[in-house]
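[worker-b] picked up task from shared queue
[worker-b] task type: protein-ligand structure
[worker-b] ligand name resolved to S-adenosylmethionine; SMILES cross-checked against name lookup, match
[worker-b] sequence length check passed
[worker-b] input payload:
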Amino acid sequence: MSGWLKVLKIFGFVIAGIAVYLVLIRLVRRIWHFPAPAFITVFLNSRLREKMQNPVEVIRRSGIKPGQKVLEIGCGGGFFLPYAAHAVGKDGKVFGLDIAEAMLVRCLRHLARVPVDLRRRIELIHQSAYELPFDDSSLDVVYLVTALMEIPDPRRCLTEVYRVLKPQAILAVTELLVDPDYPGCGATIRIGEKAGFKVEAVEGNFWNYTVRFKKP
Ligand SMILES: C[S@@+](CC[C@H](N)C(=O)[O-])C[C@H]1O[C@@H](n2cnc3c(N)ncnc32)[C@H](O)[C@@H]1O
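[worker-b] inference finished, payload out:
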């Protein structure tokens, strides 16, 4: 067999393997919707993740600007929090909220390695996405990365997000294909619109996209 044929065969096996993984993992998730285990932060906070889903780009797409008050729902191991803290600058504030205590423990460990000026801008909250501890119309941006569809009732979460966002403020939802709960872009748009948001932009690609909504 020529060298090229061998390469093609290996490539075919890799693609088929990924396809089988994606189908099987989605089937499992339909039957058994358990929360992401905390050990998954080994991947979520890894260099491989950084290559698959550039955090600087995700934060840029989420429309985060200096001086803003920003919330990440389902922050997990805190992979995106330092980048959001950098984007809001010294006058901004970033809240990372998660329902899983074990995730927040790992998040704290992760943040301990972050420069102190960024860390000071971040506050962690142990809470459910259904009860956001913020006043009405008090936040500039709420963003979620590979988290919305893991929340058992995403519609209820977005209704709560709507309440805490200021008028014209942003809800950004980013998804990654390898996530077992990955929804297509159309599904994300539908769920956001049902909660009252208007699509402002869709960025990225099928594999890794962000839908940026505005609260009218
Ligand atoms: C796949 S992880 C993503 C973590 C992080 N956003 C990232 O991309 O690295 C999803 C996170 O959503 C959190 N989560 C699930 N249901 C939640 C809920 N009802 N309220 C708040 N967080 C929730 C999980 O605990 C988990 O940390």
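[worker-b] attaching auto-annotations
[worker-b] The chain has a mean pLDDT of 94.
[worker-b] releasing lock
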